[in-house]
Amino acid sequence: MPLEFSHITLGQRVLFGAGQAVSHLAAEVQRLGAERIMLIASASQRELAQRVAAEIDVVVHYDNVVMHVPIEVAQDARQVARENAVDLLVCVGGGSTTGLAKAIALETQLPIIAVPTTYSGSEATNVWGLTEAARKTTGIDDVVLPNTVIYDADLTMSLPVKLSVASGLNGMAHCIDSMWGPRANPINQALAAEGISALVAGLPAIVQDAEDLAGREQLLYGAYLSAVAFTSAGSGLHHKICHVLGGTYDLPHAQTHATVLAYVLAFNMDAAPDARDRIASALGAEDALEGLQRLRHQLDAPEKLVDYGFTSDEIAEAVEIMLPAVPVNNPRPVTKENLTALLQAALVGDDPAVLRQSKFH
Ligand code: NAD
After folding, report:
1. Which of 27, 44, 72, 245 ranks highest by number of CB atoms within 10 Å?
2. Using one digit for the tens of pLDDT, what is the confidence trace for 293-333?
């Protein structure tokens, strides 16, 4: 088989080091020559953000962070940036906080320094998201890609273990979907495989000890790789499903990804044997699904969508919204019937193995 593909590498500076966020941020602000900084962090992360910003001058703090970035919040934050003649956005927080910075940059073209405190990976993608009238819209624009990402595992110590597990599995979902996303190629597959290995190393370590620094570092490293792979491969079946569950039914982001992942893996894997074997090997397992399920069990991971507010009454409508968005090159053809079966199984936490191609009727 000839090796043929196209690949885009996004330009971004990444500074990685525990305990170094304060000095890394000060150096980056100086390098960029910024003088009027808007610091974005949710009210609960404000103190942490102020510690990170100890060596820079901030002209305005913005803390109205809301998950999935409602358009009204984005417009208010853009206005605040303009009124204060801001020349740099610094966001400290999870994907919701990074998402708000991206929404401001989308209209103002302001540069961003992102300091992530979860494993969502938003900081390493050029994907933005906004919610208007209960529908989430996403788009791709290089202007929202943070210029610099500062990773400091110390900042993730306070992320509760349950949320860390869900967030780390959100990273794992980026890796697995990258194996068969619409623009999957050998480069993002290699990054995804390394990302899975890092997440597999980090997740059990922090479940044993929430303050295991080496484990937290592996999770941040894996989260970054997962996002680079994902942004290159594009949204596969998994992300198209979760996008609707989050945007239309308001399910929580990381927990939804952590649940749905096993079902999409089971659904697609036998139609993509190379990806399946690569995922298994990165998980250190004979079989990809068994490896993922063993890990999820060990982590006491989220199990069923019903726990997050999804109901059986919503499945038919959800399938209608999801189907047109499914990439045409998904390894296995997706139909109304088999997508309904997938959601029914994920709703109640059935064994995902029932969805494997060989077992599905
Ligand atoms: P989040 O940012 O909403 O954070 C979840 C919760 O954790 C919040 O209550 C937050 O205050 C808290 N938190 C964050 N860091 C903490 C810390 N270190 N200690 C204690 N608490 C902490 O959740 P998320 O999963 O990181 O991000 C979800 C959002 O990001 C969604 O809107 C999703 O669509 C978006 N996202 C976008 C992309 C992209 O490429 N554009 C990628 C992934 C996620």
Report:
1. 245
2. 999 999 999 999 999 999 999 999 999 999 999 999 999 99
Q: Check pLDDT > 70 for residue 153.
A: yes
Q: Is 136 in the pocket of ligand 1 (CB under 6 A)?
A: no
CB atoms within 10 A of CB 206: 24
pTM: 0.96
Q: How far is the CA of 94 from the centre of ligand 1 (A)?
A: 3
Q: Is the CB of 93 under 6 A from ligand 1?
A: yes
158 lines ligand 1 (CB under 6 A): yes
With 70 as the cut, is the pLDDT of residue 130 above it?
yes
3-state secondary structure string across the chain:
CCCCCCCCCCCCEEEECCCCHHHHHHHHHHHHCCCCEEEECCHHHHHHHHHHCCCCCEEEEECCCCCCCEHHHHHHHHHHHHHCCCCEEEEEECHHHHHHHHHHHHHHCCCEEEEECCCCCHHHCCEEEEEECCEEEEEECHHHCCCEEEECHHHHCCCCHHHHHHHHHHHHHHHHHHCCCCCCCHHHHHHHHHHHHHHHHHHHHHHHCCCCHHHHHHHHHHHHHHHHHHHHHCCCHHHHHHHHHHHCCCCCHHHHHHHHHHHHHHHHHHHCHHHHHHHHHHHCCCCHHHHHHHHHHHHCCCCCHHHHCCCHHHHHHHHHHHHHHCCCCCCCCCCHHHHHHHHHHHHHCCCHHHHCCCCCC
Ligand 1 atom nearest to 119, measured from its CA: 26
- Residue 198 clears pLDDT 60, i.e. is over it: yes
Provide the CB-side half-sphere exposure for 345 (13 A, CA).
Answer: 22
Q: Is residue 125 a contact partner of residue 107, using CB atoms and an 8 Å limit?
A: no
